[in-house]
Write a structure and sequence with these properties.
The structure holds 2 protein chains of 2 kinds.
Chain A (H helix, E strand, L loop, with lengths): L2 H34 L5 H13 L2 H12 L4 H8 L9 H27 L2 H8 L4 H12 L1 H16 L3 H7 L9 H10 L3 H25 L7
Helix pairs in contact in A: 1-5, 1-8, 2-5, 3-5, 3-9, 5-8, 5-9, 6-7, 8-11, 10-11
Chain B lengths: L2 E10 L2 E10 L3 E5 L6 H9 L6 E6 L2 E4 L12 E4 L11 H9 L11 H8 L14 H13 L5 E5 L7 H17 L4 E5 L2 H7 L2 E6 L2 E7 H5 L13 E12 L4 E6 L13 E5 L8 E7 L3 E4 L10 E12 L5 E8 L2 E8 H6 L7 E6 L3 E2 L2
Parallel strand pairs in B: 3-8, 3-9, 6-7, 7-8
Antiparallel strand pairs in B: 1-2, 1-4, 4-5, 9-10, 11-12, 11-14, 12-13, 14-20, 15-19, 16-17, 16-19, 17-18
Helix pairs in contact in B: 2-4, 3-4, 4-5
The chains are: A mainly alpha, B alpha+beta.
Chain lengths: 223, 367
């Protein structure tokens, strides 16, 4: 395996880790709100969160490119902060990945929160626990299977992205060239052996991740 | 000081709650009514689990809710027992019990964890997870967990309703111990006449979100304007004390009624019941159904009836069937209700103030 292959693997793992961590932080309040709000906006917000499941990655990539580009509103903002523009940087890739993998984190969390229901929260309140205390002492432990699912799916889905990366990140070694792009490059260059190594590695990785998910998290065990 | 003032107004489509009520700050108050009568909603209002815009709640002098302030649930010194025990599935029994306890400042702890565990008899369950417990055991843990926060008031929402008869019988004695051993006022929601008869000191009857009666148990059950059916029949529940055991005939004598017994023409009022093994001095409760009480103008010592007492007619009212009347009697300060045919009422010429002999066919000792 070439140094550029290893670089791509390292970059992919880094991107997926950072993205997953951010997604758990961002996804928790969104999922909590979606699980509990009686608001009219639950439907529209839920639909927006789910959009990346159905949209072609190129569409997401295209709009992010426009919005974060030098003439887009986010681009203006980042430039005024002296940060330059996000496309074709690692940070830009993280932002894009967060959008792209959002539903894969929010939906398992939302399901887990909904499954807990109102009662344990009421019980905790009658036992003197404030809402924040309740979240950490009751909700988080009870939602642990949901967090495991969300982490695994968020991580794996980010590892598997290709279209968005190409649109927003291009193909810069050690900056935006992740494994899926590297495979594409190998195939373009007719380097099928190298492509095989990485592609087979992806298959094995994905299988192991899903295997772990399904064995560690048997559904229907809890009442 | 020792009262709980409750005023709540709440309306949503198809249901409204409008309650303005003072209940004693000691003893067990049962909120009794059919499902949909608003009793659980009222309890949730007291706990702060049900948001109400208009309400006032003062518990033993402390304002929990009024026009300007509303204490959130976790700041109210309550204990709450839900219909299903609702134990935390991720914690073992010990940590379930400690969950609330650890959040109560040490200075405010009055009920020890050990006391709660002993009272409910759950010492052998501490290391188990909730899903390894039977329904009855879970509910006992739920009650102990609520007690362990040293509540100033214990709120219980039909704690026995989800259990079968055997489990109910398993828990009732613990609830009675609670009643006897702890000086915590209890607000207890129930639609079970049996639980009312066994546990209540004070009875609040609810119907369609309104309070239709509130008062001492004996007094409220004896009211003829709203005969509350305990089970299939109207009747009264009297508090008394075992004063004599007749080992020969396996009978116990229970003295009931208030202190005015001496002024009663028949002497202190006491009833013979089957001996259930309670010692002399045991506080006992008896239930007498209206259909088991008959009246006579003369004393008959030549009948099979064991309990014959002299009484005064207080009130005569119509029963639900046009052939029947309900007669309220005073027996040495203790109220009784008798169901008679209207023809008998006419034949005996029963009017308020008349002296009469009461024959009681059956007296049930209920703990």
């Amino acid at each position: 395996m070439s140094p550029s292959d290893l670089g791509a693997i390292w970059l992919t793992l880094k991107l997926a880790s950072v993205t997953t961590a951010l997604l758990l932080l961002i996804g928790t309040p969104i999922a909590w709100w979606l699980a509990r709000t009686p608001s009219f906006w639950k439907g529209p917000v839920g639909a927006v969160v789910a959009l990346p499941i159905v949209l072609p990655p190129t569409v997401i990539g295209f709009y992010l490119l426009v919005v974060m580009g030098p003439n887009g509103p986010v681009g203006h903002f980042t430039q005024s902060l002296g940060l330059g523009v996000l496309p074709f940087t690692f940070a830009g890739l993280v932002v894009a990945s967060v959008f792209y993998s959002l539903p894969f984190v929010v939906q398992p969390l939302q399901n887990a929160f909904e499954a807990i229901g109102e009662r344990p929260l009421e019980v905790a309140a009658t036992l003197r626990a404030s809402p924040l205390d309740t979240f950490f002492s009751v909700v988080l432990p009870l939602a642990r299977p949901g967090y495991l699912t969300a982490t695994v799916l968020g991580f794996a889905h980010t590892v598997g992205e290709f279209g968005v990366v190409l649109m927003i990140g291009g193909n810069i070694p050690d900056e935006t060239r992740v494994v899926s792009v590297q495979i594409y490059d190998h195939v373009e260059a007719m380097e099928y052996a190298q492509a095989h190594w990485l592609a087979a590695g992806m298959v094995a990785f994905s299988f192991l991740v899903l295997l772990a998910l399904y064995t560690l998290n048997p559904s229907g065990r809890r009442r | 000081m020792n009262t709980i003032h409750v005023r709540f107004k709440l309306a949503y489509p198809g249901f409204s709650l409008d309650v303005d009520l003072d209940i004693p700050g000691i003893g067990v108050t049962v909120l009794f009514g059919h499902s949909g009568s608003g009793k659980t909603t009222l309890l949730r209002c007291v706990a702060g689990l049900q948001p109400v815009a208009e309400g006032e709640l003062v518990v033993n002098g402390e304002v929990w809710q009024d026009a300007t302030t509303t204490l959130p649930t976790h700041r109210r010194p309550i204990g709450y027992v839900f219909q299903e025990a609702s134990l935390f599935a991720h914690l073992d029994i010990r940590r379930n019990l400690e969950y609330g306890l650890r959040r109560v400042p040490e200075a405010r702890r009055r009920v020890g964890l050990k006391q709660a565990i002993d009272l409910l008899g759950i010492g052998h369950l501490l290391d188990r997870m909730p899903d390894r417990l039977s329904g009855g055991e879970r509910q006992r843990v739920g009650i102990a967990r609520a007690l362990a926060v040293s509540p100033e008031i214990l709120l219980m929402d039909e704690p026995l309703a989800a259990l079968d008869l055997a489990r109910k019988q398993e828990i009732l004695p613990y609830l009675e111990r609670l009643h006897d051993d702890l000086e915590i006022p209890v607000l207890y929601v129930s639609h079970s006449p049996d639980e009312v008869a066994r546990l209540a000191d004070h009875l609040v009857v609810m119907e369609q979100g309104r309070v239709v009666a509130s008062g001492g148990l004996t007094e409220t059950l004896a009211r003829l304007d709203l005969p509350i059916r305990l089970g299939e029949d109207a009747g009264v529940v009297l508090d008394g004390e075992v004063v004599e055991i007749d080992a020969n005939w396996h009978l116990a004598r229970v003295r009931v009624g208030s202190g005015q017994a001496d002024s009663h023409p028949g002497g202190p009022v006491s009833l013979w019941v089957r001996d259930s093994g309670h010692p002399v001095g045991h506080r006992a409760r008896v239930r007498i159904l209206a259909r088991d009480v008959s009246l006579a103008l003369d004393r008959h010592d030549d009948s099979s009836i064991l309990n014959t007492l002299s009484a005064t007619v207080v009130e005569v009212a119509d029963d639900t069937h046009p052939a029947l009347s309900l007669v309220r009697l005073d027996v040495g300060g203790a109220p009784l209700v008798a169901r008679l045919t209207r023809r008998s009422v006419c034949g005996l010429d029963l009017l308020p103030g008349k002296l009469i002999w009461v024959q009681i066919k059956a007296v049930a000792l209920i703990g």
